[in-house]
Backbone:
């Protein structure tokens, strides 16, 4: 199943996608929302961020090659940081370059969407039961600020620094997907989720031992090598096999 959120006629609704059509849901899909009303062509609606998370939890250096390109070691335990919900934008929304940074990078990632609360999970199986599906995420980063401060919060948290979408796919093996990032059609990143240091479900379980994950929350699983700068006028695409393509302009 593919779910989304869309805007039509001034309303923002959750929906379920079937081919090139979408139908509104009566509630969040993980809360048992059911299709209602007519089906619309996707060309008749505007897709927006497919979730409204209370938080976005990310992990640093979960691919060895990416850690190496930054000149860093893979952490002994998952290196966690949070992006605020105010950073989240959807497909086609602009990534705004802040005045405070002169070096903003793209980071293509696979993200889990939580479907039920999860606290203190100890196994991958526990986490699997709580994950609703998977989506594309761009962990936009002010790299110069990150290097200067040795702390991720400001570098990762500017408004619009978390494009998400275009849909949530429930039927995906998170360890058998390809992640690609293109800027203006030129491939910058190409990686494989099987190369993650920490399995996505074990990562979700680990995070739940620190903080309760709530329905709609996002857990992003790290980026493969090839991160690089973006500038005003660029178009950034994050494509994950089995999900689709998330496109955003840089403004």
Residues:
């Amino acid at each position: 199943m593919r779910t989304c959120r869309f805007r039509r006629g001034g309303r923002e609704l959750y929906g379920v996608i079937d081919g090139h059509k979408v139908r509104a849901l009566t509630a969040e899909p993980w809360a048992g929302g059911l299709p209602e009303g007519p089906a619309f062509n996707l060309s008749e609606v505007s897709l927006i961020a497919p979730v409204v998370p209370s938080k976005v939890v990310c992990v640093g250096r979960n691919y060895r090659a990416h850690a190496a390109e930054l000149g860093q070691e893979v952490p002994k335990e998952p290196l966690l940081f949070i992006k605020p919900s105010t950073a989240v934008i959807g497909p086609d929304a602009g990534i705004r370059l802040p005045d405070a940074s002169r070096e903003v990078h793209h980071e293509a990632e696979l993200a889990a969407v939580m479907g039920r609360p999860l606290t203190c999970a100890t196994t991958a199986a526990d986490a699997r039961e709580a994950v609703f599906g998977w989506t594309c995420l761009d962990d936009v980063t002010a790299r110069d600020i990150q290097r200067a401060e040795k702390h991720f919060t400001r570098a990762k948290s500017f408004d619009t620094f978390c494009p998400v979408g275009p849909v949530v796919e429930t039927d995906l093996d998170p360890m058998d997907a390809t992640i690609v990032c293109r800027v203006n059609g030129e491939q910058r990143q190409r990686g494989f989720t099987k190369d993650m240091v920490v399995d996505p479900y074990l990562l979700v379980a680990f995070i739940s031992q620190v903080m309760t994950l709530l329905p709609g929350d996002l857990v992003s699983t790290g980026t493969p090598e090839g991160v690089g700068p973006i500038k005003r006028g660029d178009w950034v695409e994050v494509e994950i096999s089995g999900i689709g393509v998330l496109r955003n302009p840089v403004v």
